[in-house]
Amino acid sequence: MNATRQGQTAGSGRVARRRDRRKSEIVATAIGILSTNGYQGMNLEDVAERTDIAKATLYHYFRSKDELVGAALDVLTEDVLTRLAARAAETGDASPTALLGALVDEQVRILTESAPEVATVFSWPRPWPPAIQDAMKEMRRRHDTVFRQVVERGVADREFTCPDIDVAMQCLHGILNQSAVWIRPEGEDRAAARAAVVACALRLFV
């Protein structure tokens, strides 16, 4: 490769990195607005203003509000799944009970400490457009699978006595979703509160 082509390749690489950084900034801004105002309260004008770009420039990255919202939800989902996978990896060859407890603890930590915007965005009460609802169903299915696989393993190993996995999973998600209400950021002993939620959740299965 000659010097000219090397320079062109390096230049396009820098352009791509700048574009990725700006795109990430736009998505992060959208997440912040969604977590405080919900879907109905978010508009591209606010996103552009808070990201300090022209609205016309925003359309170079996302063609519509729904495309941007979809990207924001996907980032939140991938972040949660990555954190859960890392926590599962830390447990090694733990029993289903220990692994499920660790995953519940991590999910509660995410919702109440490390990424509380996940709780506010996914539990926003106002309706979402059909296309976004379909995407959210798939994201929730992927999230459910992380916990469901552990539960199914526990049942197969006869470590869990769970007569109806589907009902128990619905109850588990209810506990997880409500943890953001029960455990406040200003609470003095969040670790103890998380432990109490974990103990309650495990009673559904053990």
Automatic annotation (TrEMBL):
Positions of the HTH tetR-type domain: 20-80
What are the record keywords, sorted? DNA-binding, Transcription, Transcription regulation
Q: Does the keyword Transferase apply?
A: no
SUPFAM superfamilies, per database record = Homeodomain-like (SSF46689), Tetracyclin repressor-like, C-terminal domain (SSF48498)
Output the superkingdom of the source species. Answer: Bacteria
Q: Which InterPro entries match?
A: Homeodomain-like_sf, HTH-type_TetR-like_transc_reg, HTH_TetR, KstR2_TetR_C, Tet_transcr_reg_TetR-rel_C_sf
Which Pfam families does its entry note?
TetR_C_24, TetR_N
Output compositional bias ranges, type Polar residues.
1-11
Region Disordered: which residues?
A: 1-22
Instruction: Extract the DNA-binding region annotation as residue ranges.
Output: 43-62
Q: Kindly give the PANTHER family that the UniProt entry links to this protein.
A: HTH-TYPE TRANSCRIPTIONAL REGULATOR BETI (PTHR30055:SF234), HTH-TYPE TRANSCRIPTIONAL REGULATOR RUTR (PTHR30055)
Query: What is this protein's record name?
Result: TetR/AcrR family transcriptional regulator
Q: Which organism is it from?
A: Rhodococcus parequi
Q: What is the lineage of its organism?
A: Bacteria, Bacillati, Actinomycetota, Actinomycetes, Mycobacteriales
